[in-house]
Design brief:
The protein is of the alpha/beta class. The chain contains 13 helices and 13 strands.
C-alpha cells in the first residue's frame, strides 16, 4: 500500500491543540493571580503542591523553579557534595548529570537496557562494589516509563534512591506512582512535558517529613524562619502563576495520558510491518504515560531527514550519551564504556505522540515509516 500523503505538517508536539480547549479556565486563573499581586509561593503554590502530592500518592510535594533544581535540591537535602558519588545512567537529558556536577559530586554510570531504555539493574551491584563513595542512586524513569524500582531498592540497601521522574508524571510501577517509591522524587514542568507549565517549574515529592521540611527551607536560601538560614540553600521557588496554570492542567492530565496511550497503541498496530524497533514496556511498568514514543531505526539521521521532507516532526533524545559530553571530559570516560547507551544515541527517534494527534495523523506517519527504504 502506498503511504498516505501528509496534506499538512504533523508536528512532534502541538501545544496549541492542548491549550485551546482549556483557554478560558487557564486565563481566568492567571487573571486571578495577577489581580492578587501575590506571585511568590503562597496559597496557589500550596494548593498545587497538595494536589500534586495526592496525584503521586505522596505525603509531601515541594515546588521549585525547575526539574534541574529539583535534582540539585534533592542532593543538598541528603548532604551530597564534593568527594561524594551519585550513580545514574548515561542515557538521559544532561540535567541528570549536570545536577550532580552542580553540587560538586562525581557521576558514576551504569548502562541501560536496550528495550526499556532504563537502568540495567543487573549491572548495579558490580558498579556499587567498585564505587564505595556512592551516596545516592538516581534511576531515570525515561520517556514516561518507570525503572525497575524494587530491584534498585533491593540492591541499594541503605543508599538513598532518588527518582528522576522529570518525564513520568503519573507513570506507575506495579501500580505505585513515580515519585512515591524512592526517598525523593524529582519532576520537571518544562512546557513540553505531559504536565507542562507556561515556563520553567519543578517539584520534589517525598514521604519523609523531615526531608520535606529541609527541602522547603533549601528552596528559599535554606531559611527556616525569616532572615534565619540553617543551610546555604538556593533561590528556587515555583511561581504562583505557574502553580495556578499547572493546577488547572493537572485536572486534565489523566485524559491527556490516555490520549498518548491510545496513540501508542495505534503506532503498534500500524507499524506491524515496519523494520523499526518499537519501545517495549516491562511487566512492572503498569502505566506508561508516553512522554515520548521512541523507536529505533537504522540510518536514523537519513530517516529523520526524509520524514522532515514529508512534513513529519521528530526529535532525537539523545544524540550524545552523558559520559561522552564535553562537560565530563575530565572524568576519564571513553567511547565504548557504555555501549548500549552509545548505540541508542545513534538509533533512537521520537515520533509525534501528543494526545491531540488524530488517528489519521498517526496512520500517515506510520505508513511513511513502513514505506521507507
Amino acid at each position: 500500500m502506498a503511504p498516505q500523503l501528509v496534506t499538512r505538517a504533523i508536528p512532534l508536539l502541538d501545544l496549541r491543540r492542548q491549550f485551546d480547549p482549556i483557554r478560558d479556565e487557564v486565563m481566568r486563573e492567571v487573571g486571578r493571580v495577577i489581580e492578587s499581586q501575590r506571585f511568590i509561593l503562597g496559597e496557589d503554590v500550596e494548593r498545587f503542591e497538595r494536589n500534586f502530592a495526592a496525584y503521586c500518592g505522596c505525603a509531601h510535594a515541594i515546588g521549585c523553579a525547575s526539574g534541574t533544581d529539583a535534582l540539585e535540591l534533592a542532593f543538598l537535602a541528603l548532604d551530597i557534595g564534593p568527594g561524594d558519588e551519585v550513580l545514574t545512567v548515561p542515557y538521559s537529558f544532561f540535567a541528570t548529570a549536570g545536577a550532580i556536577l552542580a553540587v560538586g559530586a562525581k557521576p558514576v554510570f551504569v548502562d541501560v537496557e536496550p528495550d526499556t531504555f532504563n537502568l540495567d539493574v543487573t549491572k548495579l551491584e558490580a558498579a556499587l562494589s567498585k564505587h564505595p563513595k556512592v551516596k545516592a542512586i538516581l534511576p531515570v524513569h525515561l520517556y514516561g516509563a518507570c525503572a525497575d524500582m524494587d530491584a534498585v531498592l533491593a540492591v541499594a540497601g541503605s543508599i538513598p534512591v532518588i527518582e528522576d521522574a522529570a518525564q513520568s508524571h503519573g507513570a506507575e510501577y506495579k501500580k505505585r506512582r513515580a515519585g512515591s517509591i524512592g526517598r525523593i522524587g524529582c519532576f520537571s514542568f518544562f512546557p513540553t512535558k505531559n504536565l507542562g507549565a507556561f515556563g520553567d517549574g519543578g517539584m520534589l515529592t517525598t514521604n519523609d517529613e523531615e526531608i520535606a521540611k529541609k527541602l522547603r527551607a533549601l528552596r528559599v536560601h535554606g531559611s527556616i524562619a525569616k532572615y534565619i538560614h540553617q543551610w546555604p540553600g538556593k533561590n528556587s521557588r515555583l511561581d504562583a502563576l505557574q502553580a495556578a496554570v499547572l493546577d488547572v492542567k493537572l485536572r486534565y492530565l489523566d485524559d491527556w495520558s490516555a490520549g498518548r496511550q491510545r496513540n501508542a497503541a495505534l503506532y503498534r498496530e500500524f507499524l506491524a510491518g515496519s523494520d523499526a524497533i518499537l519501545p517495549q514496556a516491562a511487566p512492572y511498568q503498569t502505566r506508561h504515560i508516553y512522554n515520548q514514543f521512541v523507536i529505533r531505526v537504522r540510518e536514523r539521521d537519513r530517516f529523520r531527514a526524509w520524514l522532515a521532507e514529508q512534513g513529519v516532526g521528530t526529535e532525537v533524545y539523545y544524540p550524545c550519551a552523558l559520559h561522552l559530553q564535553p562537560a565530563l571530559e575530565g572524568f576519564g570516560f571513553q567511547e565504548g564504556d557504555f555501549p548500549v547507551s552509545e548505540q541508542l544515541s545513534k538509533e533512537t527517534l521520537a515520533l509525534p505522540i501528543f494526545a491531540e494527534a488524530t488517528e489519521a495523523e498517526i496512520r500517515a506517519v506510520s505508513e511513511l515509516i513502513v514505506s521507507f527504504r
